[in-house]
Amino acid sequence: MLASLAGGPKHGYAITQDVEEMAEVHLGPGTLYGALARLEGRGLIEALPADDRRRPYQLTGTGRAALSDQLRVLERVARSGLARLQVAEVPR
Question: Which of 6, 53, 57, 88 has its CA 20 to 30 A from that of 81?
Answer without folding.
Answer: 6
